[in-house]
Sequence to fold (406 residues):
Amino acid sequence: MTVIDRFLNYVRIPTPSDPHAGEETYPSNPEELVLLSTLKAELEALGLTAEMDEYGYVTATLPANVEGAPTLGLIAHVDTSPAVSGRGVQPRIIRYTGGDVLLDERGQYRIAEAENPELARYVGEELIVTDGSTLLGADDKAGVAEIMATLDRLVSDPALPHGKIRVAFTPDEEIGRGTDFFNVKAFGADFGYTVDGGELGEIEYENFNAAAGELVIEGVSVHPGSAKGKMKNAVDIFADFHAGLPRAERPDATEGYEGFYMVDEVSGGVEALRASYIIRDHDREKVEKKKEFFLALAKQIDEAWGGGCITATVKDSYYNMAEIVARHPHLIENAKAAMQACGVTPKVIPIRGGTDGARLSYEGLPCPNLSTGGLNFHGRQEYIPVKSLKTMVDVLVKLVGLYAGA
Ligand SMILES: [Zn+2]
Fold:
């Protein structure tokens, strides 16, 4: 099966992770197990020993055909972002000839040339796009397909050198729980790569330090006609808090290495309100300052409203993996060399987010992130050039070869 066939099959299997599932539900959406089981069967069909554990993680081993190489892990996630529907995905292959890419028949959704200057690089190429009603799921089914196709090629061609390869397919990455039960020790790889990045050539090993901020606001509800001096509207208290955060430190006002606060979800009314924030910065010191500011602001607004209204908490989610990866420079050097050998210009960029690799790096598996080739993740405008999918397989084959001394 080609990498394209694999990809088209995987995106048709719905796997949105569910941010509202309870802590005890893992994977968050049982549908994810359908794709995970499919992958286990496909790994076995390739002749690999594969396992699915009680949480749904699928792992497999390809034994080495040369001695002395480190054990490499290749990791991708099967779930898709819950931000846009991932059910009923109808991937379409089109030849891009320039201009806007129309997605649905009514012309309501399009990949606009003006907003997507990257399109210019793909004139004359085949693109896999959506029908406008869903996301595509290249994040991260492109990574899954590329890893599967890499194994397929290594199995089919014993002349290609490689050390022991461990593979993992994980659920729930998109809701920040992808590695919650991942057993780094049992996985047993010396180094790893997640294949979960964007446009072809991207190599990422600097990610945000991330924290979650929660506000629980208790108001006092009084009939508005007799509310003077008595009502404490939780929505007003929240509005005061939110207005106190720096406007210039929001996702829509920041880029590169700039951090931010973002309100992610708000629910409630006059009597009670809950708000969830995410707090991000590449710099560890700066993220600590942001966490302190979040709590200090909550205290200040609480006092202004008479006290006892706001409970604020912050909790670290993950850390920047740069300091771990920096101790193993070959991870980046080899990734660059593998890309260059396949005619791809590597581009090291800071991730404005996190990856499973960030957590794994802190748990003992140094794990940068490689491109999948996909663009516009988490939306209807998501697409992936066919050539990028194919090239990433070449890159991964080359990369494992470099670690095997080829
Ligand atoms: Zn992803």
